[in-house]
Amino acid sequence: MKYWIFSALAFIAAFGLALSGVNEYIFFAGFVVMQAIVLATAWNILGGYAGYVNFGVPGFVGVGAYTALSMHLLFHAPILVQIAAGAVMAGVLGLGVGMLTLRLRGIFFSIATIAVVFIVEAVVINSRFLGGATGIQLTRPTEVWLFGSYTRMLFVVMALMAVVAVSVARYIQNSHIGQGLRAVRDSEEAADCSGVPTLKLKLIACAVSGALIGVAGAPMPMYLSYVEPASTFNLHYAVIALAMPIIGGTAHWAGPLIGALILGTLQQIVTVTISSELNVLVVGLLLVIFVVAAPDGVIGLVKKWKASSK
Questions:
Q1: Angle at the Cα of 261 from the Cα atoms of 55 and 182, rounded to 5 degrees
Q2: I want to staple 258 with a disulfide (CB 3.0 to 4.6 A). Which of 76, 164, 248, 264 is the partner?
Q3: Helix ranges (DSSP H) in the chain
């Protein structure tokens, strides 16, 4: 009950902020932080719970973004319909990738997922309808219900998506699916011998993780008013999607949330105060610090502190 009250209050706060008169940049930056929460949470469902490291995140981001673009170009669909379509297509891609690659393990699975990025990017580059390699410029709707700008509305939508993503991850962790995925992570052979339907659970994790990554990518064309393959399929998405759960802690649903808030906020502060070029350096430094000094992330540090204080 406390979780749902906190989630509702967080969304109400985001909604109220969007109706206020604060600087517009807050919503540009806030959108990125909310998107980071969705990305980190989505990656952790497969990479954290099951231990299958997915480097193909940009491919799923791209599927979400270009599916949303197609819905806009063909039907002038509203943003929520675009996001739903992006989630479905990315979820189907996740299921397909899982069926083809989940029998691979360790680094072999991770390398296979990288191929997804190049395959999807090649399809987009050779599609004139989607703008090809040069990309396509978009015009946002001029009328925005209730909000003063489209950016504010996108911020609220992404805040809602962040609540949904974290809620899904929390449900999976506390359900039999999460228990089975943890068994897979600890020892897949032992899980198989114990009767755990490992392949079925991994496919569920692939589909759900892919769908949520697609949710993170779907609003990007409208957020930027422009979409092109080079930035959409940037491997930077794979790095930050992996870094944020490691910083926060991969064993708990709150870990990616904490890591995304820390890293996403810090990156926005660095972008404004110093330079956007230092974002990669910030990610690298934090990763090294946490891998060496706190391999279980912030959640692990809190647990150690509570244990030592007793």
A1: 50
A2: 248
A3: 2-19, 25-47, 57-75, 79-101, 107-125, 150-174, 176-186, 188-193, 198-217, 220-224, 229-232, 236-248, 254-273, 279-293, 297-309
Domain spans, the chain = 2-309
Q: What is the pLDDT of residues 29-60, one digit of tens each?
A: 999 999 999 999 999 999 999 999 999 999 99
Helix axes 25-47, 236-248, angle to 10 degrees: 80
Domain 2-309 sits in CATH 3.30.1360: no
**Closest among 28, 68, 60, 81 to 221, alpha carbons compared:** 68
Q: Is the pLDDT reported for residue 108 higher than 70?
A: yes
- Residue 138 is encoded by which pair of tokens? 């978009």
C-beta pairs of 176-182 under 8 Å, 24+ apart in sequence: 177/201, 177/204, 177/205, 178/49, 181/49, 181/50, 181/205, 182/49
Q: Residue 277 carries which DSSP code?
A: G
pLDDT at 48: 95
